[in-house]
Design brief:
Elements (H helix, E strand, L loop, with lengths): L6 H11 L9 H7 L16 H8 L17 E16 L18 E17 L2 E10 L2 E15 L2 E10 L30 H4 L7 E11 L7 E10 L14 E12 L2 E13 L9 E17 L2 E18 L12 E13 L4 E12 L27 E15 L1 E14 L7 E11 L1
Antiparallel strand pairs: 1-2, 1-16, 2-3, 3-4, 4-5, 5-6, 6-7, 7-8, 8-9, 9-10, 10-11, 11-12, 12-13, 13-14, 14-15, 15-16
Length: about 450
C-alpha cells in the first residue's frame, strides 16, 4: 500500500507525543483565567466548550484579577503558536482537471514552520477586551490582525460591540465561537478544504474588516439553553490595495440556539451575507455577494467518552467581482458554490481522539472560456474549468493527540480520499501530519 512508508513517520510523531500527557491552551489565556485548557476547550485546541464560549463572549474580559481589589483591571499577556506540517498528495488535479505537474506536495513537502504567530491580548479594562496577532506564513506575506470588544455583562450572558480586522479568518471573525468552521480556527481538521463545507466554499476564511453587535444569553427560557445573535457589516479586505473599503461594505447576520438534550448540548444555527453591487468594467472594483447557510453542533459524552459532531450546509454562496481588477488575483475570483459536510470526533482518552469527516462540493460557477495558463492537458473541451472542482465526496480520517513536552503541543495525522464528480478528473488522496507548539 502506498501509505505504508509513512506509517513510521506517524508512529514516531505519536510516540514522541506520548512522553507526557498534560495539555494546556494558549498560555496567555491560561495565565489570565488561572485555568488549564480543559476548562475552555472541547477535546483539543482550539475547539471551544461551554466555558470557552463564555470567555469569548465576554470579549476576553474574564480574569482572575477581578477577584483581587489590590490589582489593576488590565490583564494583557503574550503567547506564541508555531505550526509545522508535512503534506503529501497523489494525483492532485490542477485548474484544468489534469493531474498537476506543478504541485510541490506531489513529492511530499515539509513546512517547518508553516505558520508562526505572536498573540497579545486579554482584558484591557472592566468592559473592554482585545487581541492582536502578528503572523508569519510560509507561502504568504506576514500579516497583522486585531479585534477590540466593548462588552456589558447581563444576567447569564453579555452584549457587546466588536471591531475587527483579520488577514485570513473570514467575516465572522469578530465574534463567533461554535466549532462548525464558520470561523476558520474553530474546526475539526487541519485539512479544512476537504473536510468542512464553510472552509471549502471560502465563507469562513479570507480577509475581513468589520463592525458587529452581538447578544449572548444563557438560560433564555430557564432550561439551560443558550441564545446567540450577531449582526454587522464587513469589507472583504484589510486595506485599500484592491478595493475601497468604504464602497464595499456587506451586511451579515448570524443566529444560534443551543439546547441541552440528555448528556448533549445541541446547537442549531443559520447565517446570511447579502449586499453589494455590480459595476461597469471601467469603474472601481466592486463586490456583490449573496451567501446563506445553516449549521448544527452536538457535543457531549457517550460511555464517558467526549464526542462532538459538526454539520455544515452551504445553501448558496455567490460572489461576483466587477470593475477594474476583477479576477486579477485569486482572492478576487468569482464564486458560485454549494457544499455539505459532517465531521465527528471521539476522544478515546482525555488526550487522544479519532475523527472522521464526509464532504461534498458543487462548483456552480460558469467559467469564461479562456486559456488555462499553459498547464499540460490531453483532452479537448470548450471550457476545461467547468465542474473540475466538484466533489462527489471527500472522506477524511484523522487522529489528534494533546500533550506537554516542555511546551504544550498537539499532534495530528490526517488522510483524505477525494472522488471528483467529473469522470475525466482522477480520484486523488492527501496525507497530512501537523504539530502545534504553544509558548
Amino acid at each position: 500500500m502506498k501509505t505504508k512508508k509513512y506509517i513510521k513517520a506517524a508512529a514516531g510523531m505519536f510516540a514522541f507525543a506520548g512522553l507526557n500527557q498534560e495539555a494546556q491552551a494558549l498560555p496567555m489565556f491560561s495565565t489570565q483565567t488561572g485555568m488549564d485548557c480543559k476548562s475552555c476547550h472541547l477535546q483539543h485546541i482550539p475547539k471551544l466548550n461551554e466555558f470557552g464560549r463564555k470567555f469569548a463572549a465576554s470579549g476576553m474580559t474574564l480574569s482572575k484579577k477581578i477577584l483581587d481589589e489590590n490589582m489593576t483591571a488590565t490583564d494583557i499577556n503574550p503567547s506564541v503558536m508555531v505550526k509545522s506540517l508535512y503534506q503529501k498528495t497523489w494525483d492532485k488535479p490542477g485548474a484544468s482537471g489534469d493531474v498537476s505537474t506543478k504541485s510541490q506536495t506531489e513529492d511530499g513537502e515539509f513546512s517547518i514552520p508553516k505558520t508562526a504567530t505572536l498573540y497579545l491580548g486579554g482584558r484591557v479594562s472592566e468592559n473592554i477586551g482585545g487581541l492582536v496577532n502578528l503572523s508569519y506564513k510560509k507561502e504568504e506575506d506576514e500579516a497583522i490582525s486585531a479585534k477590540a470588544a466593548y462588552v456589558q455583562e447581563i444576567e447569564d450572558g453579555f452584549w457587546g460591540i466588536v471591531g475587527s480586522s483579520f488577514a485570513d479568518f473570514g467575516p465572522f471573525s469578530g465574534m463567533e465561537f461554535y466549532n462548525t468552521g464558520l470561523y476558520k480556527p474553530l474546526r475539526t481538521f487541519d485539512m479544512r478544504t476537504l473536510s468542512n463545507a464553510f472552509q471549502a466554499s471560502s465563507i469562513g476564511t479570507g480577509e475581513s474588516t468589520g463592525l458587529q453587535a452581538y447578544y449572548d444569553k444563557g438560560n433564555l427560557f430557564g432550561t439551560g439553553d443558550h441564545f446567540f445573535v450577531t449582526a454587522g457589516a464587513y469589507a472583504p479586505t484589510q486595506d485599500n490595495l484592491y478595493m475601497d473599503i468604504a464602497d464595499n461594505i456587506l451586511p451579515f447576520a448570524r443566529m444560534a440556539y443551543l439546547y441541552p438534550v440528555g448528556n448533549f448540548n445541541v446547537m442549531m444555527g443559520a447565517f446570511a451575507i447579502a449586499g453589494g453591487s455590480t459595476v461597469a468594467s471601467t469603474e472601481s472594483l466592486s463586490i456583490e455577494r449573496e451567501t446563506y447557510g445553516i449549521d448544527l453542533q452536538i457535543e457531549g459524552e457517550i460511555a464517558e467518552k467526549l464526542v462532538s459532531l459538526n454539520v455544515a450546509k452551504v445553501l448558496k454562496n455567490e460572489v461576483t467581482y466587477t470593475g477594474v481588477g476583477a479576477g486579477a488575483v485569486h482572492e478576487l475570483d468569482n464564486l458560485d458554490n454549494e457544499a455539505f459536510s459532517i465531521e465527528g470526533e471521539v476522544n478515546l482518552t482525555p488526550d487522544f481522539g479519532v475523527k472522521l469527516a464526509y464532504m461534498n462540493y458543487n462548483d456552480r460557477y460558469t467559467y469564461p472560456d479562456h486559456d488555462h495558463g499553459g498547464e499540460d492537458h490531453d483532452h479537448e473541451s470548450t471550457n476545461q474549468f467547468v465542474d473540475v472542482k466538484d466533489l462527489d465526496h471527500a472522506i477524511t480520517v484523522g487522529l489528534d493527540y494533546s500533550f506537554d513536552f516542555y511546551l504544550p503541543m498537539k499532534a495530528s495525522a490526517e488522510y483524505c480520499w477525494a472522488k471528483p464528480s467529473l469522470d475525466r478528473v482522477k480520484d486523488y488522496e492527501t496525507l497530512l501530519f501537523s504539530l502545534n507548539m504553544l509558548f
